[in-house]
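Hey L., structure's done. Input below.
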Amino acid sequence: MAEVQATAQLDVLGKKCPEPNMMIKSKLDTMNPGDILEVIGDVSNRRSIERFIKMRGHETVSVTEEGDKFRMLVRKAEKEKGDIPTSTCGLK
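Output:
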C-alpha cells in the first residue's frame, strides 16, 4: 500500500482550542475535494481536532504521535457539512 502524500501542511503547534479548528477550516477551504492536509499539533488538541474533522464530513486518513506532538492526515470531503461549530473544545 502506497503512502499517502500531503497536498498541503498546517502547523497548529502551541495554539489553544478553538484556534486550531478555525485554522484547519480556513486551510481546507482553499483546497480541492480529495486533497490531503497534513496537520501537526499538540497531543492535547488531538481529540478536539479529530471530532471537528469528523463533524465537518472530512476523513482522518492517519494519525501518529511522537512525544507531545501528533501528525494527522486529513482528506477533504467532496462536500463539507455546514454550520457545524468550529469549537469542539468542550465536547467529551
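The chain is about 25% helix and 30% strand. Residues 63 and 72 are 4 Å apart (CA to CA).

-- N.
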